[in-house]
Task: inverse folding
């Protein structure tokens, strides 16, 4: 019965608690004074704008309104050469632009963090996240780590024991703990650790020799991998191995792989620059063609206007060929040619705007760009074997893929090492300390903790081996197999890339030949069309039978089309030459563009010079492998499997390293000190 009563009381209490919740939270609350409603939002997610204060570029602020065909202002003509345009695009564009990005949802607008820029190689070099680390971040694994701590404490408790006349004893302890350690990872994967600790204990515990004492130690530890994940080669590729190989995190975190990734980033940057330079030259010739088409349309319009005036004059005097139908036809033809002129002018403005964007200029600075260079008209002779060799040696895409293959080759070596058990050599030697005082001149009876350590009274050492291995190595073999498959795929991709490049080169040569032959044919066509206009115009003016105005107008239109076709063929011919250089990978060389690293600081130059001289004077140890084998070259790797007749190593096809500019600094000494490099001075007003 008591339990039933308690259940009823609990049910009533819960009901009393829940009933107010059903009545809602609206209550009449009164406040003193008057206030405006603040801090209230009717939505948790609204459109907001970042508080970023960045100045707009000056060329945008000072830009005039865009040019249109209704704008009759006389702008200054800016005759710009092709080489100036290319160098201007290189100098002005920090973000690499391409022609296809214009008026499209490009990556530059949607996700600019992934758009190519001049900062990409430096961003890769300074990467620090897992999988995107640069060389400096990879070298950070070998930085000496220093740790230290100093802790004080006091603890008072009751000991469950009797001491003297008291049934319970109050135990009091004061502590102090000091720890310091230096740890260094070596290039061979070994780890050296120096640690020192000192602990203080002050207590009132009975039956102790010293109420206050110091204990500590100073140790040196050395651990060296001997089997799986061991050696300088593995450490350079995969980075220092962890404490165990059970959880494999990959073999691509070493310094060498980070350096290869930087070379891949450089190849990506160079490829972006190549695409931009190609687009600049193509757009330059398209703008040239737009001007030539405009000139041809203007000439055709003027001829149509003269013909209309002549027909109208004949109609007014009632002469032959001056009927109303002929006058209406001449009038219609004039307005048709006038519309073509307007469209040609609009095309010039459109292409000039695109060209300004591509070379990094504002919309309108009061000058209108006009190409100053004329297209090449001479025959461009191409040797298939030489061009193919250049393409297979110089194409950036192939260089990038070869770096990828080299990275996977090195990762395969490291992955094979992980299929072995982890066997570590471990060693430790240390000196223990104990004393009533931390430091004391009297070292007898353990009065000084550091005194016992100095006298090496208490020693400790450890020496042995540690072995750990998963039974079966399934994860390690899976990683090895995956890396080998990636390497096989990369080699197959390289072979396919070379085949595609050969087809691209063949297509470029075919287009080049077609454009040249078509240009010669269109030249003959223009000459013939000019003679046709002269003949039909003379017959019409002489009143020859069957010589009508329609024939004259058709001849004039044909002459304009022949003029446009000729310049179109010439432009296509020059664009074909540009495309051929692009397919061969020589477009930057033809534009006198080279990629190079910025100058080092004065301190870095001096330090590098001192280390270089120190290594130059060092004695060579035949038993010491101080430097790894070369896996790169400052010049393109020669294609020794291409042995066509007439091609050899001395024909200039394979570039050689450029000679070092200046003189080599002399060795340090008394008679010939190192000439200091003068650091740049800050210019002060």
Result:
């Amino acid at each position: 019965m008591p339990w039933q009563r308690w259940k009823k009381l609990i049910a009533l209490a819960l009901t009393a608690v829940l009933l107010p919740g059903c009545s809602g939270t609206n209550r009449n609350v009164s406040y003193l004074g008057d206030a405006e409603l603040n801090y209230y939002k009717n939505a948790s997610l609204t459109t907001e704008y970042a508080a970023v204060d960045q100045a707009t570029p000056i060329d945008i602020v000072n830009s005039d309104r865009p040019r249109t065909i209704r704008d009759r202002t006389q702008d200054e003509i800016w005759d710009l050469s092709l080489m100036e345009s290319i160098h201007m695009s290189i100098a002005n564009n920090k973000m690499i632009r391409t022609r296809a990005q214009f008026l499209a949802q490009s990556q530059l607008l949607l996700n600019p963090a992934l758009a190519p820029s001049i900062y990409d190689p430096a961003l890769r070099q300074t990467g620090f996240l897992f999988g995107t680390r640069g060389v400096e971040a990879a070298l950070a694994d070998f930085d000496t780590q220093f740790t230290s701590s100093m802790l004080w404490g006091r603890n008072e408790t009751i000991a469950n024991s009797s001491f003297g006349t008291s049934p319970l004893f109050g135990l009091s302890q004061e502590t102090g703990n000091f720890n310091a350690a230096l740890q260094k990872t070596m290039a061979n994967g070994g780890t050296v650790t120096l640690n020192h600790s000192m602990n203080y204990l002050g207590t009132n515990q009975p039956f102790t020799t010293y109420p206050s004492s110091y204990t500590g130690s100073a140790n040196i530890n050395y651990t060296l991998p001997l089997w799986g994940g061991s050696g300088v080669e593995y450490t350079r590729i995969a980075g220092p191995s962890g404490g165990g190989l059970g959880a494999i995190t990959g073999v691509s975190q070493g310094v060498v792989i980070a350096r290869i990734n930087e070379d891949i980033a450089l190849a990506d940057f160079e490829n972006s620059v190549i695409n931009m330079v190609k687009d600049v030259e193509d757009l330059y010739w398209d703008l040239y063609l737009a001007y030539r088409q405009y000139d041809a349309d203007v000439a055709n319009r003027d001829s149509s206007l003269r013909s209309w005036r002549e027909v109208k004059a004949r109609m007014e005097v009632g002469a032959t060929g001056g009927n109303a139908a002929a006058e209406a036809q001449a009038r219609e033809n004039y307005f048709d040619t006038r519309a073509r002129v307007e469209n040609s002018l609009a095309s010039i403005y459109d292409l000039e705007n695109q060209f300004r964007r591509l070379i990094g200029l504002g919309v309108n600075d009061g000058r209108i760009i006009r190409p100053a260079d004329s297209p090449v008209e001479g025959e461009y002779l191409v040797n298939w074997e030489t061009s193919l060799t250049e393409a297979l040696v110089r194409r950036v895409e192939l260089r990038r893929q070869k770096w990828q293959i080299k990275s996977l080759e090195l990762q395969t070596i490291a992955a094979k090492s992980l299929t072995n058990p982890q066997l570590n050599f471990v060693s430790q030697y240390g000196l223990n300390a104990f004393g009533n005082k931390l430091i004391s001149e009297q070292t007898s009876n353990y009065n000084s903790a550091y005194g016992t350590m100095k006298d090496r009274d208490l020693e400790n050492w450890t020496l042995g081996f540690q072995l750990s291995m998963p039974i079966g190595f399934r994860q390690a073999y899976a990683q090895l197999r995956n890396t080998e498959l990636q390497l096989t795929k990369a080699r197959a991709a390289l072979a396919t890339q070379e085949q595609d490049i050969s087809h691209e080169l063949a297509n470029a040569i075919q287009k080049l030949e077609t454009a040249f032959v078509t240009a010669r044919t269109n030249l003959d066509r223009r000459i013939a069309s000019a003679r046709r206009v002269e003949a039909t115009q003379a017959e019409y003016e002489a009143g020859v039978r069957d010589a009508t105005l329609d024939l004259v107008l058709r001849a004039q239109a044909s002459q304009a089309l022949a003029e446009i076709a000729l310049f179109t063929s010439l432009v296509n011919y020059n664009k074909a030459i540009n495309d051929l250089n692009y397919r061969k990978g020589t477009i930057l060389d033809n534009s006198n563009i080279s990629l190079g690293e910025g100058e080092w600081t004065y301190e870095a130059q001096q330090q590098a010079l001192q280390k270089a001289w120190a290594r130059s004077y060092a004695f060579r140890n035949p038993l010491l492998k101080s430097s790894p084998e070369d896996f790169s070259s400052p010049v393109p790797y020669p294609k020794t499997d291409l042995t066509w007749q007439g091609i050899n190593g001395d024909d200039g096809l394979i570039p050689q390293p450029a000679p070092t500019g200046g003189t080599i600094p002399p060795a340090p000494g008394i008679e010939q000190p190192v000439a200091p490099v003068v650091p740049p001075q800050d210019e002060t007003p």
Q: What stands out?
A: The two ends are 101 Å apart (CA to CA). The CA atoms of residues 663 and 675 lie 11 Å apart.
